[in-house]
Amino acid sequence: MGSKSDQLLIVVSILEGRHFPRRPRHLLVVETKFDGEQLATDPVDHKDQPQFSTELAWELDRKALHQHRLQRTPIKLQCFAVDVLSSAKESVGYIILDLRPVQEKKQVHSTYNRSY
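^ Centrosomal protein of 120 kDa, sequence as received from the core. Prediction below:
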């Protein structure tokens, strides 16, 4: 059994979006699934520069992280527009993050620009 020091936290910071068209009656949410666990941001207004300002995190041990790196398991962040009246969910884009360059205690920032 591994010690607690073998536990790592993979943290993805989702700060903001850029160049989204303003859509009244819609909210934006980012969903992702990694290591069998699905996480999502809180819904935010669908506007030009939506502010998510949140972090999604998964806890796993070094051995599991090593396996994910060997298998090149990506973290796919998918952005959805949600109609507040009908709850219909429409995919508006995604970004895939590669785990291989991730290092301990180092933050990796990525920007996703959306244009229609």
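The longest strand covers residues 51-61.
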